[in-house]
Design goal:
CATH superfamily of one domain: Alanine racemase
Distance between the termini: 30 Å
CATH topology of one domain: TIM Barrel
Number of helices: 23
Structural class: alpha/beta
Strand content: 15-25%
Shape: globular
Length: 652
């Protein structure tokens, strides 16, 4: 997060928290901080429709729906779709472009049925469609578009004869379904099915362009790209189609350049190359009508508006304008008709519409003062080790007002800690002395931060992160934030409440899995990812506390996180709830999808929950018979077992 500090002369306000967590930068106008210190959502970018997310979580708790929970905001999704539609409509009108525009949503981005149905229902009004990339997705896509025969259904991915025949038959039924050829042999499969069923569907060819991508997925395009046909293969494909009398079906030219394109120049290069290829195909007699430029429209996760992996250096309007004007310029120079333009934007549509909420269940911090009894006992030894004496001397000077002396004391304490570690590892220092040196070092380090603030020298800028607290959250990174672990994706994380209070701690987050990688230790910052997050102080063991739970919201998680998540430690899908704004500043639950139970996740890995129950009940009875446990204990254990099998996989 931002390292900016705020004046202590005035009371902390919600506006300070909004700036500290950089909500306006990454929020896209959909999120803000209320005057009462809550994180609020603006589903249509309008404060009049604000939804207090903290109030939603408390309302869910009253309905016995506990965190972790995904709050989906269909209003945000609809606004994003409308924004994309309007951006292209405006670009087309401004350029006097002769073709139309449509977006198809790749369901791989979030295949959850309720999300896809929301995209379909609202997309039908905008002329949008869906995209699928596998056999299971094809079947889901056919089900989703039942009754929406005019809705485009683009079929990408590798295909076999069964896949192609299904598409051809769907076309014969009247569906607007478009298979995209990824490999040359798929053309023969289309020819065979077309002949067998006496129908030629409209189809496309994906081109493997030479323009390289950027960022994490740069290798998915260019000469070594996974997808599509080379230019030479496309030429042979046109000849084959002409010879077979199938050229009239080639209506789409497709390309793929990657995901999360953060530099608009890459988009321009790709569109230019694709448009020139379109011109040449027309000249070769192919009746291509649509250019599908694929996905890649980015999301500004860190709010920096920059050409970096977690951001993007263009707006949606700039994206639409550049695409339309590039295609128009190439076509006008060649004096050919303007094609329809299609994009496969998924991340940009759904990322903002989901918020993952989790509860902080405890914390661990470095002591600000050494334990007096520990220090006294260590110093009382007959010959205290020299590193302990050096650390104690540094500790005694930590209150100096001279910054140079304070930094010298810290350097001495750090050196003493290194020496103590080495001596302990060699067996020359006892455990008590080692522990005392550590606590003295932490105390001196805290003094440096407290007294110098922004004046901490550059070489010690990581000290805040080194001394950051560990906040434990009821969450599985591997289930709900897989990209954070897998590719280092940075997500904005903000408390849902107490934002009218100044956060006084810095922390990293640790989940409840028994895996050391189950941590979040990269957060959006002003000049790149920050290794710790400003948070409010919480009890080290809040369980059973009368204080209100401290909730964190993880934002921009609508794309990929749900369907990519795994079952590490058998922690399953979280609850998800669709929330809309209601009159008079209220909100309402539109759909509640309960998370997976222990019984369900056990069955995924071939355990029979009923057999488990039977076996453990028998074991309890054996223990009762042998007088190893009492009757009341047996009843409590059976109750835990039965309730546990039907309960949430997370802590409740």
């Amino acid at each position: 997060m931002s390292e900016k500090t705020f004046s202590t002369d005035a009371a902390w306000t919600s506006a300070d928290s909004s700036e500290l967590y950089r909500v306006p930068d990454w929020g896209g106008g959909y999120f803000g901080v209320s005057s009462t210190g809550s994180l609020v959502a603006y589903p249509v970018g309008d404060e009049a429709t604000a939804i207090d997310l903290h109030d939603v979580v408390r309302g869910l708790a009253g309905r016995e729906v506990t965190t972790p929970v995904i709050i989906r905001l269909p209003g945000v999704l609809e606004h994003r779709m409308t924004h994309l539609r309007r951006a292209f409509d405006a670009a087309i009108a401004s350029a006097e472009y002769g073709g139309g525009y449509a977006c198809v949503y790749p369901i791989k981005v979030n295949q959850e049925r309720h999300v896809c149905e929301a995209v379909r229902d609202f997309g039908a009004e905008l002329g949008f469609g869906l995209e699928v990339g596998s056999k299971p997705e094809l079947i889901a896509g056919l089900a989703l578009t039942q009754g929406f025969n005019e809705m485009p259904l683009v079929c990408n991915g590798f295909k076999d004869a069964e896949y192609i025949e299904t598409v051809v038959l769907a076309a014969k039924m009247g569906r607007s379904i478009i298979p995209v050829v990824e490999q040359a042999h798929e053309l023969k499969l289309i020819a065979q099915s077309a002949a067998a069923h006496s129908v030629l569907p409209d189809f496309g060819i994906r081109a493997r362009l030479t323009t390289p991508g950027v960022g994490r997925w740069a290798g998915s395009s260019g000469f070594r790209g996974k997808f599509g046909l080379s230019i030479g293969e496309i030429m042979h494909a046109v000849d084959y189609l002409r010879d077979e009398g199938l050229l009239s079906g080639l209506k789409m030219l497709h390309c793929h350049v990657g995901s999360q394109i953060f530099d608009i120049r890459t988009v321009k290069y790709v569109v230019s190359e694709l448009a020139h290829l379109y011109v040449e195909l027309l000249r070769a007699g192919a009746p291509v009508e649509t250019l599908d430029i694929g996905g890649g429209l980015g999301v500004d996760y860190d709010g920096s508006q920059s050409a970096s992996q977690g951001s993007m250096n263009y707006t949606l309007e700039q994206y639409a304008s550049d695409v339309v004007h590039r295609v128009k310029a190439v076509c006008d120079d060649a004096e050919v008709p303007h094609p329809d333009i299609m994009t496969e934007s998924g991340r940009a549509l759904v990322a903002h519409s989901s918020v993952l909420v989790c509860e902080v269940i405890g914390s661990r911090s470095f002591p600000t003062e050494p334990d007096p009894a520990l220090l006294e006992a260590a110093l009382a030894a007959e010959e205290p080790p020299q590193p302990l004496l050096d650390a104690y001397e540094a500790f005694q000077t930590r209150t100096t007002t001279d910054s140079d002396s304070l930094l010298e004391a810290f350097a001495d304490a750090e050196h003493a800690l290194t020496e103590a570690t080495n001596l302990f590892n060699l067996g020359y220092m006892d455990l008590r002395s080692r522990a005392a040196v550590e606590e003295l070092f932490w105390s001196v380090g805290r003094s440096v931060l407290d007294q110098l603030g922004d004046e901490v020298p550059e070489e010690l800028h990581d000290l805040k992160d080194r001394l950051a607290d560990l906040y434990f959250v009821n969450l599985s990174v591997f289930q709900s934030l897989l990209d954070s672990w897998g590719i280092g994706q940075v997500f904005p994380i903000v408390p849902l409440q107490r934002l009218d209070e100044e956060p006084t701690r810095r922390a990293i987050l640790a989940d409840i899995t028994c895996d050391s990688d189950g941590r979040v230790e990269a957060f959006p910052g002003e000049s790149g990812p920050s290794a710790s997050l400003p948070l409010h102080e919480v009890p080290e063991e809040p369980a059973g506390s009368t204080s209100e739970p401290y909730y964190l919201g993880v934002f921009l998680v609508g794309a990929y996180q749900e369907t990519l998540g795994d079952l590490h430690n058998l922690l399953g899908d979280t609850h998800s709830v669709h929330v809309r704004s209601a009159p008079n500043g209220r909100w309402r639950i539109e759909t509640l999808v309960e998370g997976e139970t222990v019984r369900e996740v056990l069955s995924y890995v071939q355990y029979d929950p009923q057999e488990i129950r039977t076996r453990l009940h028998r074991d309890i009875e054996d223990a009762l018979e042998a007088d190893r446990i009492e009757l009341g204990e047996a009843a409590r254990l059976r109750r835990f077992l039965d309730e546990g099998l039907s309960g949430y996989t997370y802590l409740e």
